[in-house]
Amino acid sequence: MQQTQLSSQAWLEQCHSNGAQLGLKELLYYKPKANLLSLKPKARIKSAQAGQYLAPHKGRGMEFAEVRQYQYGDDIRAIDWRVTARTGEAHTKLYQEEKERPVFVFTDLSNSMLFGSQLLLKSVQAAHLSALVAWSACQRGDRLGGIVFNEHGHHELKPIARDKGVLALCHQLCDIHQQALHNREHITQQHVAQSRFADNLKRLTHLAKPGSLIYVISDFTNLNDASFKQLERLARHCELIGCQISDPFEHQLPAYREAIMVEAGDNAWTLPLMDKQFRAKFAKQSAEAFANRLSRLKRAGMTMQSFSAATPLESQLMR
C-alpha cells in the first residue's frame, strides 16, 4: 500500500507511534528511509581543514567536476579521449574528492514544541526528522553528534560514527522528550525558553568544528537577539539547515460552532472560532509572523525548510 493511501491511524500503527509519546521503535522506523534525505552540501564549503563531502580542491575522487585542456603534470589516466578526439587537443577530467564531514542535529523539545492538533506533536515530528537526518548521515558514513534540549535540561553528543552515534541520539531524544512531557507545567516563562535556546546554540558553537553540517530543528518561536547572533556565528563556518516544524492550527483556526477556551500554564484565552472575521484576522497575522521569522532566520545564514506535524514526514519529502 502506498503512503498516500494510508489513513492516519494506519500510518501511526506502521510507525509504532501514538503521536504524543516517543519511543525508540518509531525512530528505528526511519533507518530504511535514509535515502529520503540528501546530506550533500548545498552551500560553498567554508573550511579547507574539516572533512566534507566535496573537498574544495580538484583531484582524483568520486565526484566528476569538469573537463579542461591537458596541462603538463596531469595524470594521463584522466585524459578524456572523447573530448580529445572531438577537439583535436588533449583534455583531462577533473574530480572533486569526496570526504566525510561531521553532521550535528540540534533538536528543540521545549514546551512550545509540545503541541499538536492532528497527527503528531511538533516535538514528535522534530524527533522523527532528527532520526531521519541521523540515519542519512550514518548511511553516508559520517560521524553524528548533536544537542537535544528542553526547558529543563540538555544533552550533548560528541560525533560518533555508524549506528552507535544514531542510537545514542535516539535514546536521548526519547529521554529528553519524556522529561519535557513530565515537567511541561513547571516552567512557563518565555524568557527561560529563549535563554535555553541561545545557551544551547553557544554549546553547539564549541561542539561543532568548522565545515560541519548542522540541522537545527525547532518551531523557532523562542528566539531572541542572542539566539540570532549565535546562529550568525555558526553560519560563518558551518552549513546550517533550519527545519521549522509547525502545526496547521498555528496557521489557520478551524471553524467551530462556539468559542473555546485555551489554557497554557497560568494563561488562558477565549477563541471565538464561530467568528469568520476573527479566523481571517488570525490567519493574516500568523502568515505575517511566520514570514518575518523565516526572513530573519535566512538573514542569519540558514537554509530553511518547513515541515508540518499534521502529515507523515516521508509524504512531505516525497512531494
> What structural class do the secondary elements suggest?
alpha/beta
Global geometry = elongated
Number of helices in the DSSP assignment: 10
Beta percentage is 15-25%
Task: Write down the overall mean pLDDT.
Answer: 86
Structural account:
A six-stranded mixed sheet has the order 6-5-4-7-8-11, with helices on both faces. Strands 1-3-2 form a three-stranded antiparallel sheet. Strands 9-10 form a two-stranded antiparallel ribbon. The protein is built from ten helices and eleven strands. By secondary structure, the chain is an alpha/beta fold. It folds into two domains: 3-45 and 101-317, von Willebrand factor, type A domain (Rossmann fold); 54-98, no CATH class. The chain is 39% helix and 23% strand. It has helices at 8-15, 24-28, 81-87, 122-140, 162-183, 190-207, 225-235, 248-251, 276-299, 313-317; strands spanning 54-59, 63-69, 91-98, 103-108, 144-150, 153-160, 213-218, 239-246, 260-264, 267-271, 302-308. The longest helix has 24 residues, at 276-299. It is elongated and about 80 Å long.
Summarize the structure in short.
The protein is an alpha/beta fold and about 325 residues long. The protein has helices at about 10-15, 25-30, 80-85, 120-140, 160-185, 190-205, 225-235, 250, 275-300, 315; strands at about 55-60, 65-70, 90-100, 105-110, 145-150, 155-160, 215-220, 240-245, 260-265, 265-270, 300-310. Helix 4 (about 120-140) packs antiparallel against helix 5 (about 160-185) and helix 6 (about 190-205) packs parallel to helix 7.
